[in-house]
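Input/output pair, single chain:
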Amino acid sequence: MRLSTLLSVFITLTVLATPVASARAPEEWAKRLDEYQKLLEKGAYETALPKLEMICEEIVNGPEPGSVETRDLLVRALTQRAVAEIGAQHTDNGLWYWAAAQNIDARSAQSDLSSFSEPSAFLRDHRLLRPLPQQCPPSANRPRPTVTKTVSLRYPEGARKLRVQGLSVVQVSVDERGRPNNPRVIAHLPAAMEFAALESMREWRFEAAKRDGVAVPSEYCASVLFRLK
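Output:
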């Protein structure tokens, strides 16, 4: 079924305090990701998943939110998390984190996933279409989804301490259930902040757009503002 609409809005979300990241060196994160990769290669998806959730949180809240090292580690962690989610049969989450990795660094779409067995083929078949949109398309005369639930933004600790602020614009598809999927970042920020915006929107819920009284897939565009008082 053809995607229908796009609604562009500007939203300043309530910012929640984030826990202070552990003082772990990037070298240690890299070693832990090596360990988690071995778990995934063995098919231990449920074992690896909470570990990957934790390391994503630590990297996002690290002291250098915009560094190349932070970006590369976060993309690697998100790719592994996508593998773990798919392997654990959490398809929606797996596709979301796979899209997040590709939004943060387009090169992740070409990652060598061959050692991850069945999830690798699934993820290869669900790469983001390129090029990503450069702006929110017009929504005139198209059915629109309605936001029914938003989730407060968690400000990355390193970005908060450095007082890094900015605007991220994210376009998502909204399915007939009112759930967002296939996120595409239109206005980019440092990797940690971009992931925080995506992670917030992952939990948004909508009343699906309707055509002739029937729920249909649609598009929604939101501007997520990181602002400190």
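Confidence is low (pLDDT under 50) at residues 1-9, 17-22. The chain has seven helices and ten strands.
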